[in-house]
Amino acid sequence: MKVKKYVAPTMPEAMKQVRKDFGSEAVILNSREVHSGGIFGLFKKVSIEVVAGLDKEPYRDASRKTGEVKPISQTNRQERGSSLSNEFLSEMKQLKKMVEYQTSRLPKEYEGGYQYLYEHLLEQEVEQKLATEITESLQKKHAGSGKRPDSETIMQDAAAHIKAQLDSMSFQGICGEKRIIQFIGPTGVGKTTTLAKLAARSMLRDDKKVAFITTDTYRIAAIEQLKTYAEILDIPVEVAYTMNDYREAVKRLNTYDLIFVDTAGRNFREEKYVRELEQHLDFGGGVDSYLVLSMTGKPKDLEEIYQQFADFPLTSLIFTKMDETTRFGSLLNMLLRHQIGVAYLTNGQEVPDDVIFATPEKIAELVAGANDA
């Protein structure tokens, strides 16, 4: 068997190289994500490594040299033949499983611009099932109208298709209908900074009287960070250690238009931390609760986090760190799977500037990348 290793930025590009060298009879032996370069462990480049092989030769007994003839008995010949046959069948079964697994992950073959769209969506980390649905819906639509669009038109139509799927969802941000605005989510996603951005915008642009409450009593640094923002904005901040503290703080702040509540960022894969929120926060009427997620998170991790909070009455999602990634498929996956809207996207650390309203048009543009065709 001839075996060769390929390294490419994406799986579709790696498969193009494999097909070019080995054709359609190639066998994918292994694939994995590899990291290279970087400085002090940062800014590493992510690539896909694929090991492929091609074997057009019949199976041979490698232990026998050419021209070497050894007399063996009929019994030994049968035993040896049976052993080699079993070994060969076992190896072929393993290869078959590998091929089936890898084939299920490979891009389908579409015509021209549709293949470009399909591979682009996969590169954006859109789920394969959803990428197939979008691509084939456009193919069917264009075929029915007799169109033969170019790649740019296909990408533009894909953006319009995605927008239409999102139009029925809520993308409304803080509007003042509810006084208490709670931010929940895992550690490291930027909840406190996002809270400060939105509080500052409410003061400066909407002329609202705002205040802070924090239930993040696990980290002294978190309390100090929020107090620093409160001093800059010249607004009060209350620290709540228990549900009773929380309710008393709300009473003391009853003259304020909006109360922004920061919560502890913990490892929410452990359900006990999620249950602790119920003991410290009020999820009743008059409260909006936003789940804050990072766009740099892996799709499976984001789904796992969402499931931990699925029982809470979530108002909407907020996605942070838009400026730290070029892949936005997880955003679309989450919205369509759970039929929940997004209120804001953040794209930097500047308070209050680096936050934008999420819209179906913006998300469609991020995912479809119509201008990249």
β-strand amount: 15-25%
Distance between the termini: 39 Å
CA-based shape = elongated
- DSSP E strands, number: 11
Average predicted local confidence, pLDDT:
81
Percentage of helical residues?
40-55%
Question: What is the spatial order of strands in the main beta sheet?
Answer: 6-5-7-4-8-9-10-11
| Count of alpha and pi helical runs | 12
Order of helices and strands: EHEEHHHHEHEHEHEHEHEHEEH
Uncertain spans, ≥5 residues at pLDDT below 50? 58-70, 99-104
Radius of gyration: 28 Å
Tell me the structural class. Answer: alpha/beta
* Largest sheet report: 8 strands, mixed
Could you describe the 3D structure shown?
With 373 residues, the protein is an alpha/beta fold. 45% of the residues lie in helices and 18% in strands. The two termini are 39 Å apart. Mean pLDDT is 81; it is low at 58-70 and 99-104.
